[in-house]
Write the structure tokens for this entry.
Amino acid sequence: MNRNQLVDRVAARNTASKAEVDRIIVSALEEIIAAVRAGETVTLIGFGTFKSVESAPRMGRNPSTGEQIRIPSQRKPKFTPGVTFKELLNEEL
């Protein structure tokens, strides 16, 4: 499912227009990204938790020369699904 399909489904289940639903979804995602970027953890009960994790610096190699290079640490987003979400995935349809 892509964003447009999500907007269509949410609009069909509610009384809001597709344009309004799209604005709300985009705003919600922007707020989650901003919070995680600021180092906050975002927990949506029943869905999951978004947070930022830092990878350790490590050694790698340049694939074209084989030379060893140092890969610096990076912040990466991490999503952990909630218990309810995991349970729903394993229910019989």
About this structure: The mean pLDDT is 95. The CA atoms of residues 47 and 82 lie 5 Å apart.
